[in-house]
Model the fold of this input.
Amino acid sequence: MVQFLKLTGNFPLESGEHLSGVEIAYHTYGRLNSDGSNVVWICHALTANSDVADWWYGLVGKGKCFDPDKHFIVCANILGSCYGTTGPLSADEEGGIFYNRFPDVSIRDVVNAHIALRIHLGISQIQVLTGGSIGGFQAVEWAIMEPAVVKHLIMIASGLKATSWTAGLNEAQRMAIRADKSFFSNIPEGGKEGMKAARAMALLSYRNAHAFNKTQSLKEEDDYRNLKAITYQQYQGEKLARRFNAYSYHALTRTFDSHHVGRNRGGLKTALTGIKARTLGIGIDSDILFPKEDQELISKYIPGARLQYIHSEYGHDGFLLEYDLLTKVVRVFMKEISGF
Done:
């Protein structure tokens, strides 16, 4: 069941702005043991929520890789989302709704909210901190910000910084949202049609040409006006529009763009030397959103980190779909953790 933490006072943002009365939605599974050594904190990706047992059910659950019978599992909804944590549909200080006036939130701001929740829950150490995609962004930032707290770090299909490639993809999606004039109408459903187009764009980068051609195969006799690929893209846009919000989508892609662990820390190498966590990077060999050259920076710059690839035809989405392969790799890593 979703729980909520409301912070008092102003929550400072990296931009110099602030949010007042921040609320954080979160889920926990299992119990914290007597010495607090069984915490698994999972950071979610762009449009997910804090109910990680629902959307990552292949890895979280009884008898699975992250087991509530053994572990105290925490997942917090991120700032800017529309799943309970303060975001664009929240009230501003004047009692109105933020909509597209929601301030820029960085990955570091997201982690500061996680830290506030960690303290509230009485957690002094995190045995395993993990996340895929933008969840990995949060995890590595946290390992830098609180090196004494994070014992083991698992980054999946992720990287140490947003790139020009990812920022370009994100801006193309935001342009689609802003092209929908209703986005500027300050209504809850504003920008919905634009977000459908944005999601269709994003999906192409979450997969790859091989995967898309295979799953949306084309036959000679197909009606070119109604190809399977066309209806699939339309379906994916509609599907997201039923559960998400365009203002949050726009804001969270901006948060994605903020990621660079070396910013104001003397560059990547200097920033990452302070990480104390034993680190595993899991890359996906067909990922075009985070290609190999991006993921290889994990093992290059994080002290003692190792990088292991899994093979998947699903590209970036492999971190959500390849449960068996991920479980095998993560369990080997977790066996190295004494008593875990």
